Amino acid sequence: MSETGTDGFEVIDVKEKIISESDLDFAKSQIGSYEDMFNKRAIKYRQDGWKEKDLSDDQFKELILTEYTFLKRPIYFIDEEVYAGNAKKTVEAIKSKLSE
Prior knowledge:
Layout: E1 2-4, E2 10-12, H1 21-31, H2 43-47, H3 57-66, E3 75-78, E4 81-84, H4 88-98
Antiparallel strand pairs: 1-2, 3-4
């Protein structure tokens, strides 16, 4: 489900519509790796035993594409830049970008 607000943002509910492979690939090109976008706090990451495995970057990608909880959220696509997660440093970078 998505909605476009008056501020020009499109909000996409990743529970309803998982991120597309092309959007994920673009995000990786900006962020650096699929692992950097992977939510290692996800319950399924521990429950399913993934935490104990040495995963390749491509395996992180496949997991993200199959289960929305593996993607760090929120994820922002602003111009040609991508931000994932809600760490203080990330939020500050987003605020800075939006105030340009």
